[in-house]
Amino acid sequence: MNDTSPTRAAGRFSVLWRGDILPTLALGAPIAGAQVAQMAVNTADVLMIGWLGATELAAAVLAFNLYIVLWLFGMGVLQAVIPLAARARGEGQARELRRAVRMGFWFVALYSVPAWAVMWHTEELLIALGQKPEVAALAGGYARIMMISLLPSLLTMALRSFITVMERAQAVLWATIAGAVLNAIVNYVLIFGHFGFPRLELVGAAIGSVITATVTLLLLVGYVLRDRQLRRYHVFGRIWRSDWPKLAEIVWLGWPIAVTLLVEVALFSGTSVLMGWIGTIELAAHGIATQLASITFMVPIGIGQAAMIRIGLAAGRGDRPGVGRAGWTGFGIGMAFMGACAIAFWVIPGTLVGLFLDFGNPDAANVFAIGVSFLAVAALFQVFDGAQVIGGSLLRGLSDTKVPMIMAIVGYWGVGMTGAYILGFPLGLGGIGIWLGLAAGLAFVSVLVMWRFALRERIGLL
């Protein structure tokens, strides 16, 4: 008996590895890589615009903050395409999958018009919010060109949904990497006027964003048209034909996801404001800690989306045990990764914080000390942050979005933001208190969403 038990255990693990762990990793890793590559695009923009000067950087940041709110809402609604398409594929309903993807394209086209109208008036909006006229004018000129990129960028997200549901996420990764490289080259040429091109500064950065978004979209369109399996779905065929019921289904399922994303972004923006009340040094250290957390966060996003797709496929096949395996496998992989990151934050915080500092700067030592203390709390924060994003993705795989939205609003603001303020100021814990409040909010949401997934059959999600 003792001889056979290890063999049986190894056999069970082998089955689990081939059937659940490996497919989740194969799908999730390229999605996470694409998220990191997208971060590289944004980082290159900030870095090169920052070389122009503080005024130009301030203008770009203000315009981009408005852009990202509009982009995130649109992207949130488009997230509904993933579970709808995955379930349709699991059911073997090619027509339903095609309907979901096409109406994702339609949503982008319809949504871009009012979004463009808002961005066209960026200068007026910023002046109304009390920004300096010269900064607002620069931001307005930048926004009126950059806003064009919203359409190809969101169309790319809709097409990515189709490609990842078809388990071709490597194409998304390589297209995004190509876009990141192109963005850096075009920005360098157009912002600073190299290789005989005129020096366009902020206008050049905006043109670079439009070119990058368009080329990335064209790369993915070309891939879909060339791939034999993807081409069979004809997602671009008769694209002019409306399908209002399916479009309404996407919006109805997707708007709570969009609100959830905006509430989460607002939480981190709000805690940055709170940190700014304490001091500039603390805010700088907070920025470093959140940047590190944002980088590691890309992996559970990818794993969560992979699990969402696999849950949708299993649900479409009517495979209830498969839904559970897909969900708990994704959760386990995500927690293993974030646990390793938490250990790194705890063991080598100085090394990580030091990457962002020039110790020739007189403030660097103070920023370093505070940043290291923040990472100690961020280690705990890592686990909860990974759990809540994966848990939310598991529920989206079951087309469950409205209750998780309410959980997120209560957790992020009722617990997280309120806790950050109380711990940071009335209780006098300062920056550490703000990070503890963040961790508490994320912990609250993570427990609720995973509890809801565990009860999925009892509460009628399957």
From TrEMBL:
Signal sequence bounds: none
Listed GO biological process terms: monoatomic ion transport
Principal location listed in the UniProt entry: membrane
Membrane topology summary: Multi-pass membrane protein
TM spans (from-to): 57-82, 103-121, 141-159, 171-197, 203-226, 247-268, 288-309, 330-352, 364-384, 405-426, 432-455
GO cellular component, one term: plasma membrane
Pfam family, one: MatE
Domain of life, source organism: Bacteria
Subcellular location field: Cell inner membrane
Annotated keywords: Antiport, Cell membrane, Ion transport, Membrane, Transmembrane, Transmembrane helix, Transport
Example of a GO MF term: antiporter activity
PANTHER family in the record: FMN_FAD EXPORTER YEEO-RELATED (PTHR43298:SF2), MULTIDRUG RESISTANCE PROTEIN NORM-RELATED (PTHR43298)
Name listed for the protein in its UniProt record: Multidrug-efflux transporter
Species annotation: Stappia indica
